[in-house]
Amino acid sequence: MCIRDRSIGDGNLGEIRIGFLGSAMQNVIPDLLIKLKNKYAGIKANLEELSNNAQVNALLRDKLDVGFVRLARVPNGMELRPVFEDTFSVVLPKDHKLNSISFKGVHQLVEESFILFSQDYSPLYYDTVMSICEDEGFTPKISHKSVHAQTIFKLVENKLGIAIVPTSLQYGFQMDVKFIELKKISQRAVLSVIWKADNRNPALQHCIDLLLKKK
After folding, report:
1. pTM
2. Pairing mode, if any, of strands 42-49 and 113-117?
3. Comparing C-alpha atoms, which of 87, 28, 29, 22 is closest to residue 52?
4. 75 has a pLDDT exceeding 80
């Protein structure tokens, strides 16, 4: 066997097909890509932003090798491991009366209209935000739903509602909105890596080991 064939067999060459939610691009995926470049420069990454359900379906059909999702459970034959835990933050128009000093709790948002990520796009996120509000004694009034953070922030900027999002999503956008981190609530935004247990792409194990800090 030639050196190139051995490299392919060892997973040091080839392609890793990665699905992801937008929030994963703020920290987890860039960190993974840097590690892959430094340790396995021959592995090329193909990235595709997809919803949770679309990633699961693509993995089951062997269209992706690995995904980054916010899910509590996955189908049989799939592996799920948490890789990043984030807090939530409230997103408000920049001139909103509430600020980091006057904000005392989510109960102050009871009269606000909420803009959320679609339940179909991320059911766990949707349910978590609902639970954050319900813990404060109210059910949020939902005015809009979207699958894109930029759309949500633009709606907030135009005073069409407020939002609650994973804190890391605040980076990379330049809009007239402000973020107030919800440090005192128990809920966290957990990002997990998911893959099909019987996937035989040799580059996949390198990717998983780097994510789970085995290498």
Report:
1. 0.83
2. unpaired
3. 22
4. yes
